[in-house]
């Protein structure tokens, strides 16, 4: 095979400004990272940043975790892709482990959170179809939700800002207020198939559904013969201090969408389901060319090795306590800027006063070589890797304080 002609390709100049060839669908910061280790990222210029964004809750085990690197490189030397026309050994192992560690009996692998959410929607509708109730296809969803960027996922969330310009939204979704039990029950009709909700609305501003509300949704679904779909794309795989957030409410869903942390940075999504909820998904009803490929399976199995090891999740809960304490101190010290602190394990954030916008805090934090992430509801998210040390938490809080001090100076 001929070697590529490197001389014919335009030279890449990451430090010389962004390329106009990349579609401008993001307002990207003008910074290029070259490598990472643990909770730290290093730019092409050699500057080090403390990563308290984790690639938006994706890099659960930080950057270049040695166990993940070893698993990926070993698999890369063996086999990358065969398709789902054949059995995939890593798929079967990962599915078995997920079923052993969760409510699920069946798992479908895909590539992203949006795909997982869409697949869960399909499974819920197909379930009622195969039970002889094809009229039951509508799904109750919630204001402030975010389920991905595909048209169906955007329609499920119903945010007009994200739907503008894309024509008619996909039908079949009834949107109600978050955690409003009376509104939910009033929205149930003979056409309702399921209720779909995030235990914590991450993109929606770290809005936490109380455990009693999640338990109430389970009871409501049982009462009306509905399926409960949980979107744990952002909350799953240890992010809130338990393997999945719903465990803290003592309930189980029928279907669950998983992504982000499960791949530790490698693209991977999954739909977890009970035997009954998965009963309609037979050969030909769903598929994914790349879903469950050997590379993704090797990395995800390595992620589970770490996250499910004795004491790991308990340590995440302890770290969360330290971060919560530090953010509470920041709320007191900067009460003119910070209105409320919201904490669900290491999925944390703070709501800003109306006169301050998340972009200002994100920018000021970047100036302190700290990465944080904006969200809706005027919230800044703090999402350190689950492996973050107590010392790194203290360092991150110190940098955040300096950033807020800078915002205070410019906003007065």
Which series of helices and strands comes N to C? EEEHHHEHEHHEHEEEHEEEHHEEHEEEH
As for the CATH topology of the largest domain, it is Aspartate Aminotransferase, domain 2
- Total count of helical runs of at least 4 residues: 12
Q: Considering the protein shown, what is the CATH homologous superfamily of the largest domain?
A: Type I PLP-dependent aspartate aminotransferase-like (Major domain)
Please identify the structural class as seen in this structure. alpha/beta
Mean pLDDT, rounded to whole units? 95
Strand content: 15-25%
Describe the largest sheet.
7 strands, mixed
CATH class category label of the largest domain: Alpha Beta
**End-to-end C-alpha gap:** 64 Å
Biggest sheet strand order reads 4-12-11-10-7-5-6
- What's the architecture of the largest domain, going by CATH? 3-Layer(aba) Sandwich
Global outline: globular
Number of strands: 17
Helix content: 25-40%
User: How many domains, as an integer?
Assistant: 2
Taking all Cα atoms into account, the compactness measure Rg is: 22 Å
- Low-confidence segments, given as residue ranges, are 1-12
Quick overview:
By secondary structure, this protein is an alpha/beta fold. The chain is 35% helix and 18% strand. The strands form four sheets. The chain has a seven-stranded mixed sheet, sandwiched between helices. Strands 1-2-3-15 form a four-stranded mixed sheet.
């Amino acid at each position: 095979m001929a070697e590529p002609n490197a001389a014919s390709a335009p030279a890449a100049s990451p430090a010389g400004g962004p390329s106009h060839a990349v579609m401008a669908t993001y307002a990207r910061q003008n910074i290029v990272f070259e490598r990472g280790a643990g909770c730290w990222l290093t730019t092409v210029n050699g500057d080090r940043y403390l990563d308290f964004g984790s690639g938006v809750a994706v890099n659960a085990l930080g950057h270049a975790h040695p166990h993940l690197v070893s698993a990926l490189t070993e698999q890369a030397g063996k086999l990358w892709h065969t398709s789902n026309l054949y059995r995939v050994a890593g798929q079967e192992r990962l599915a078995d482990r997920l079923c052993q560690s969760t409510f699920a009996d069946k798992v479908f692998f895909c590539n992203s959170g949006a795909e997982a959410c869409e697949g869960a929607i399909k499974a819920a509708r197909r379930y009622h179809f195969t039970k002889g109730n094809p009229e039951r296809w509508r799904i109750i969803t919630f204001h402030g939700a975010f389920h991905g960027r595909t048209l169906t996922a955007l329609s499920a969330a119903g945010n007009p800002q994200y739907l503008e310009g894309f024509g008619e939204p996909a039908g079949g979704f009834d949107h109600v207020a978050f955690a409003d039990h009376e509104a939910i029950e009033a929205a149930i009709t003979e056409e309702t198939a399921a209720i779909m909700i995030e235990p914590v609305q991450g993109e929606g501003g770290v809005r936490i559904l109380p455990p009693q509300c999640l338990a109430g949704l389970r009871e409501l679904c049982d009462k009306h013969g509905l399926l409960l779909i949980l979107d744990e794309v952002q909350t799953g795989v240890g992010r809130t201090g338990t393997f999945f957030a719903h465990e803290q409410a003592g309930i189980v869903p029928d279907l669950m969408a998983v992504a982000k942390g499960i791949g530790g940075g490698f693209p991977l999504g999954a739909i977890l389901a009970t035997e009954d909820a998965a009963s309609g998904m037979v050969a030909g009803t769903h598929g994914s060319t790349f879903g469950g490929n050997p590379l993704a399976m090797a990395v995800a199995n390595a992620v589970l090795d770490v996250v499910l090891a004795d004491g790991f999740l308990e340590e995440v809960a302890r770290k969360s306590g330290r971060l919560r304490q530090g953010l509470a101190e920041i709320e007191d010290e900067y009460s003119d800027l910070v209105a409320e602190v919201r904490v669900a394990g290491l999925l944390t954030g703070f709501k800003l006063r109306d006169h301050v916008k998340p972009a200002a805090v994100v920018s000021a934090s970047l100036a302190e070589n700290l990465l944080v992430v904006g969200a809706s509801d005027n919230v800044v998210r703090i999402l350190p890797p689950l492996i973050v040390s107590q010392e790194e938490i203290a360092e991150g809080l110190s940098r955040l304080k300096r950033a807020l001090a800078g915002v205070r100076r410019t906003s007065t």
